[in-house]
Protein: PACE efflux transporter
Organism: Falsigemmobacter faecalis
Amino acid sequence: MFRLPATQRRLVYVALFESLAIVLSTLLLNLLSKDDSHSSLPVAVAVSVIAVVWNFVFNTGFEAAERRFGITHRSLLVRVVHAAGFEGGLVLFTVPLFMLWYQVGVIDALVMEAAILVFFLVFTFVFTLAFDRVFPLPHQQVQVQDA
């Protein structure tokens, strides 16, 4: 177990998450593309960069909209709108990228996007669970188990 200050913990999280995500999504994209002649690493890196930039831009805009409309609590509906807006925007960037890079149609690109979405849903859950055990939140107490 490693204790890190909050900012350093977030930086380690992003670096590890994105590094593993790039490696694993490269393998998944290679499998989905059915074309060994193209390397999927550049696409995986591009999708990672797009996701990080879009996350910053989208959340900045979403939080500004929340302030403008006086939303002070994220209800289930607000969270659904947030998740759908983020993923919807990401699809607008990634589907054309898949179409261009892999020379596939809209349906194939949407299937690739859906597979990536499911992958990241599972990956994020598992990664965060493991990360929180190795790098607990700064305010969490360490529980010592008796031998």
Observations:
- The CA atoms of residues 62 and 82 lie 7 Å apart.
- The chain has one domain: 6-134.
- The first helix runs from residue 6 to 33.
